[in-house]
Specification:
This protein is α/β, with parallel strands linked by helices. The protein has 9 helices and 15 strands. It has 2 domains: 168 residues, Alpha-Beta Plaits (2-Layer Sandwich), CATH 3.30.70.2810; 170 residues, Vaccinia Virus protein VP39 (Rossmann fold, 3-Layer(aba) Sandwich). The strands form 2 sheets. Strands 1, 2, 3, 4, 5, 6, 7 and 8 form an 8-stranded mixed β-sheet that branches. α4 crosses α6 and α8 runs parallel beside α9. The N and C termini lie far apart (69 Å). Bound molecules: S-adenosylmethionine. The site of S-adenosylmethionine has 21 residues, from α4 and α6.
Length: 369
């Protein structure tokens, strides 16, 4: 649905076409699940969108086709969206410049800008142009009043939008600039760091990752996750048949356990289960469900590897397996799942128990004949 007439800027001769919809950044190759998930979410709220999801473009444009404003999902409602905004205009047919973006967005003094381009083969060469435009617009990472967005899709094409606190991710384009901490035993440490920043809020991190908290890390070697937790003072049992890197052991807080992660039982309940084993998603879901449901851990963070052709369907099956297992033991749980920047063909999930334990079902006293 468009909001008004097309305008042609005098300075650059680009066409500005009002629009209403959502612009969503995703990992290249995941446009289809990103689009399907967003369209479903909008549909269940009574809306309707037409999605443009070009293969390996790194973005989805969902154009509103209902007569009512497009419902805006929350950042955590959409697994495959790295970051998004409400799209209000398209700029095309001429060089994208700062004047055109201002014309399209009509910001007020004090408003902020995030200017980016998709994380794709076509988008990455536009990042320096996006950074130059951001400087011209006086963009700040922290919006002062409202935050406006521009996503460059080509030298002569951009989508302009308005930030919505519900859909705003923590980083422009959903790309965290996290350095691998010196001495980390593996690059996976960065993935866990991103997961803790995206899936937990600051209060939860302070509360649940205190020095002295306990964790079991299943599939721990070479030890990036264990090492990162130990840096926060968490005491970790690192379960793997492979060896841990000396850096993990040198923390003094990581105890190795040579065992199968699927049969390992902690001698007493722990605060955290983390799991990075490469295994079928339903199998991992069942394992996490048993740990959470039977009280072996209070919260869990894990990866679901989704290498198949339909990650959304695979994820649906994994979620259902987790819910089934949890429901056998426990009344409720909060589950958050996100396709992180550092995730490839996998997603990262966090769950914590809510509610209370289910009463065991009464035993069937009828004797067998
Ligand atoms: C992706 S790596 C984990 C990397 C680790 N998170 C890090 O930060 O360094 C997967 C690990 O899972 C382990 N693994 C796979 N299946 C396992 C099982 N059944 N029991 C224990 N470890 C297992 C592998 O030996 C491998 O070391």
């Amino acid at each position: 649905m468009t909001r008004g007439p097309r305008l042609r800027t005098l300075a650059a001769m680009a066409t500005i076409e009002p629009m209403d919809g959502l612009f969503l950044y995703c990992r290249p190759g995941f446009e289809a699940p990103c689009a399907e998930e967003a369209a479903r979410w909008v549909r269940t709220r009574g809306g309707a969108v037409d999605c443009t999801a070009r293969a390996r473009s790194g973005y989805v444009l969902a154009a509103n086709r209902a007569g009512t404003p497009v419902p805006v999902p929350g950042f955590r409602d959409l697994v495959f969206t790295r970051h998004g905004f409400r799209a209000v205009a398209r700029v095309s047919g001429g060089p994208v410049d700062a004047a055109g973006l201002v014309w399209a967005a009509r910001p007020s003094p004090g408003d902020g800008w995030w200017v980016g381009a998709p994380d794709s083969d076509a988008g990455r060469p536009l990042w320096s142009r996006a950074a130059a435009l951001a400087r011209q617009l006086g963009a700040t990472a922290r919006a002062r009043r409202r935050r406006f967005h521009a996503a460059l899709l080509g030298p002569e094409e951009a989508v302009v939008g308005v930030g919505d606190p519900r859909l705003d991710g923590p980083w422009p384009m959903g790309i965290p600039r996290l350095r691998l901490p010196a001495g980390a035993p593996s690059r996976s440490a960065r993935k866990l760091e991103e997961a803790l920043l995206v899936l937990l809020d600051g209060r939860e991190r302070d509360r649940y990752l205190k020095p002295g908290a306990t964790a079991v890390d299943l599939g721990a070697a070479p030890g990036g996750w264990s090492w990162l937790l130990a840096r926060r003072g968490v005491v970790v049992t690192a379960v793997d048949n492979g060896p841990l890197a000396p850096a993990a052991l040198d923390t003094g807080l990581v105890e190795p356990a040579r065992a199968d992660g699927f049969t390992f039982r902690p001698p007493r309940p722990v605060a955290w289960l983390v799991c990075d084993m490469v295994a079928a998603p339903a199998r991992v879901a069942k394992l996490v469900g048993v740990w959470l449901g039977t009280g072996r851990c209070a919260r869990a963070l894990w990866n679901w590897k989704l290498p198949g052709r339909d990650p959304l369907a695979e994820l649906g099956r994994a979620r259902a397996a987790l819910a089934r297992e949890l429901a056998r033991h426990w009344s409720d749980a909060a589950v958050r799942v996100k396709h992180l920047y550092h995730d490839r063909a996998e997603v990262t999930a966090y769950a914590e128990r809510r509610g209370r334990a289910r009463k065991p079902a009464p035993r069937n006293r009828r004797r067998r004949r």
